[in-house]
């Protein structure tokens, strides 16, 4: 009896006069930042009409959500939508997940009219938009232990190229945190100090949303330099794994950096004086002639000849790098869905066909289409 009661909480169905909404949530009790998987199935029950659906969770500061899958069955007067979302509660206590939905109704004659003319959709589709009230899902969310910065299963990698240097010689430090859980956010892991000069780049952050989890990687590159020896403080970051309910620490040990003293005797110039100057120094004349020759050559050389020696530098965008690193069609589908961009609709439909109807297009070709 207890198992049946839990099942009823996780599955919710809403019946209207002409549609049915079925929701399945992986759990209703969870920790703050723990991933919840929400499946939503919307189907048309009144087959006398032509319907269109628009559905999404409401934006809220109490949770984050990411759409990771969408399927549509638009058979004649029998529309069906299937959605999958990853929900991450960001607040503790009672959390309400709200939804927005619009049901659009039209008929066959208006559909035919909308696609008439010289090209498809040249005339706007005449339809009636009707807001649909969808009951919210209520969650019971436990607060995280104090000081927790990461939620999920994460690991830390750390490297330093040298611990003994000459004054102002750069010390290169690389740090990476990667794993599965609540998507990471960019932050500074090594703070500024009066004991050393810190040079840094913007952290490189990547997140991929899969069918039941999110994978994140963040990388930092630092260069430190100093005049005197110093101590690099230890770094300890608390993390919590909701699956195992384990509290753990990602840490970098305290590191002593030795800056070697310079022998001042080596800095003394042993040459008392420069060589005796010549009575007439013609060096300035040769220098001026060389400058004039370079100027005349640059002026006379056609630009199109110089242009042949220019090499085009192609800088890949972050999105193109993500596409390039993808290893499967399902990962590519999840990435395109996360962009929420209408220009990928045709490719998303093709990927759905690839994955679920076993059409044959190479992953290389599909990735090339995504980055056009």
Descriptive labels:
21% helix; 3 domains; 8 helices; five-stranded antiparallel beta sheet; seven-stranded mixed beta sheet; Immunoglobulin-like; 21 strands; single chain; 372 residues; alpha+beta
Largest sheet: 7 strands, mixed
Radius of gyration: 32 Å
Structure class: alpha+beta
CATH topology of the largest domain: Immunoglobulin-like
CATH architecture of the largest domain: Sandwich
What is the tally of helical segments? 8
Mass-distribution shape:
flat
CATH superfamily of the largest domain: Gamma-adaptin ear (GAE) domain
Give the terminus-to-terminus CA distance: 55 Å
In percent terms, what proportion of residues is strand?
35-45%
Total domain units = 3
Overall mean pLDDT stands at 82
Can you count the beta strands? 21
**Element-level helix/strand string:** HEEEEEEEEEHEEEEEEEEEEEEHHHHHH
Which residue ranges are poorly predicted, with pLDDT under 50 across at least 5 consecutive positions?
Answer: 1-9, 113-123, 309-313
| Helicity range | 10-25%
Which class of the largest domain in CATH terms? Mainly Beta
Question: Can you offer a commentary on this structure?
Answer:
This protein is an alpha+beta fold. It has 3 domains: 2-142, Immunoglobulin-like (Sandwich), CATH 2.60.40.1230; 148-263, Immunoglobulin-like (Sandwich), CATH 2.60.40; 318-370, no CATH class. It is 21% helix and 40% strand. The chain has 8 helices and 21 strands. The strands form 5 sheets. Strands 12, 14, 15, 16, 17, 19 and 20 form a 7-stranded mixed sheet that branches. Strands 1-2-4-7-6 form a 5-stranded antiparallel sheet. Strands 3-11-8 form a 3-stranded mixed sheet, with no helix packed on it.
